[in-house]
Each structure stands twice: as structure tokens, then as C-alpha cells.
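Render this sequence as a predicted structure.
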Amino acid sequence: MILRSDLPNTGFFNSPTMQTFYESIRCRGISRRGFLKFCSVTAASMGLAPAYASKIAHAMETKPRIPVPWYHGNECTCCSESFIRSAHPLVGDVVMSMINLEYDDLIMAAAGHQAEAIPERVMRDHPGEYVLAVEGDPPLAEDGMYCFVGGKPFVENLKRAAEKAAFVVSWGQCASFGCVQTAHPNPTRGTPVHKIIRDKPVVNVPGCPPTAEVMTGVLSYVLAFGHLPALDRKGRPQMFYSHRIHDKCYRRGHFDAGQFVERWDDEGARKGYCLYKMAARGRPPTTPARRPCGTRAPRSTSAPATAAWAAPRRASGTTARSTTGAPPSVSSRSRRRPTRWAARSPSMPG
């Protein structure tokens, strides 16, 4: 997998025949003031300084909309469900103005041969200019027979579409790292996308599902700056996956002060003290995400990475350890209830 932030010199998103984002929203009656406000909100959602709003505005005034064919492999479509719930920017602005969603067999109106002809047209008319979005992983067993799209194995469609793409975005845990489809014994030989596509940059946006704003933020960044955001060693955008929940939690001050909730109805809970001893154990030191620890997101907008409940259960009187320091000993009142994993019957597998 290529983990560079630059892209090949292929005329990336410089086609003069495609409408720009600014032209598109002006046709819809959006004012100049509304456009600049949108650019400011987009910069803020990506964690950029206010000065970048003008750069985003310039890019959206001059650069054409990004053609995006969206492919589906073995998955549950939860990534698409998350994507359509984006708030910053709204998915309607992304799909109708920012990108040109050429093909998505989940939500498109076309069907049959009419639908099958769209990816071929995109590859013919926009070589090196389109972004291939992939949701779900391709199965390799039995020549890919476990996932057919348009009468062809999904893995063949994926390889063909990736040949002329500017880069590939793997939406969700399935496409990024395999998820449940690749669990042992993996009879279909489900494989992450970056292990199939090795000659193109691949951006992994994991999560089940990934946060909607992360998905739209990646596309917004590419449109605004013309190159990929910096990626970590796992191919994830550092702008979204370089911080832990603990680093930006609004309860962090209480953690540093040793102020913890001991019971859900105690005085500390009413004052907003740290939830490390209650629901957040294991999350603060380990989980890369944008949501404060101790809060649970709706499934449609879960954090960029699934929670890493890696810390073992502590007995009463032991000291909880973390990478940022050790809080006071856990008392008998705050002993964790058995998790669903610990409460499973011995007869259950796994």
C-alpha cells in the first residue's frame, strides 16, 4: 500500500469540462455569503485554522467536482448509512455540489445494463481524475464467487475500476481491515482492499461505521488541497486518527485532578467528573477517536475507531494504570460490572 501524501502527476481534478462546486451551489440559489460560511464550517470540521477557509473557498471556486464511483462488496451498508447523516458538511451539499457521485448501486435510480454502463463511462471520460470509494471487502475464495455484481466477481470490478483511479478510499472496517467477514475461519477469504490494490494510494477510514464527518472530511480535504492528507502507518488520515479520546475529552481536567464518578447518581456524576472508573475504563489510554470518553454514540455516527477495551478488569483495591498516569485506587463501590464478554457461558465459542 502506498502511504504517500502526494499523488501522481495525472492532471488531478483539473478537467475543464466538469462544473466547479461554486458554480453548482450558485445554480441552486446559494449566496456568496452562504458559500463562505460553508467553507468556514468545512475548515473547522477538519480541524484546520480559520485562515484555511479562504484556501478552501478558492479551491471550490476553481476546481471541478470530483467524480466518485462508490463500490459495494461484502458489507452491511452501515458506512453509507453513516455517510448520509453527515452534518458538517451536509451530505446533500457533498453529493449534489462537492462531488459527482456517478455510481452507487445502493442509492442510485439506474439499474441493469444502464447502471453497469456508468462505471465504464467514468473510466473512459475521467482517467486519473476520479476517486474510487469502496465499502466492504472483496472475497477471493472460489475465484470471487461469494460476491457478484453485474454478473462479475466483485474483486474483478474492483481491480478494473482502480486501474485508472486517482486513489482509492476504503470506507469502514470491512474495506480497511476486514472486520467480521475475515474472522476465522474466513471461508470466503475476505481480504482488505489495500491488500488487493497495491499500485494506487489507498486511504483507510475504519470504523463500524466510520464517523460521517470523517468520511466527508477526507473528500473535502482532497478537493480543497489537491492531494491526500497525511496518513499514518495504517493508512488512516492523521488529521482524524492521531488523537485519543483521552486527549480531547472535556472531562480530562477532572481526570488530572483525581475527581472521578464513583456511582452514576453521586455528586461527582452531577458535577461532570471523569468517568474512568465507570464506563470509560480501557478507553482513555488506547482508543483513537474524536468522541469524549464515557459517552456512547449512536451506531450511525460511531467514533472513527471501535473502542479498545484492552484494560483488564481490576479487583477491589488495585491501582488502575494508564499511559498518562495512575488514578487513585479503585474502591469496592466502583467495581466494574461483568461485561458481556466476561458473562458469556463457558459453552459459547470464542
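Summary. The CA atoms of residues 116 and 150 lie 7 Å apart. The longest strand covers residues 66-72.
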